[in-house]
Amino acid sequence: MNDASGLVALKFAVAVAMGTMIFTVGGATFEFF
């Protein structure tokens, strides 16, 4: 159960990181144009 929780937390962290990166790139593109 502990391993499963860690895996879910890892996936969530990766999803947040990817979402933040995409949002940052989108914001930079929006500001550039």
Automatic annotation (TrEMBL):
Keywords: Membrane, Transmembrane, Transmembrane helix. The chain crosses the membrane at residues 12-30. It comes from the Bacteria. This is Na(+)/H(+) exchanger. It comes from Proteus mirabilis.
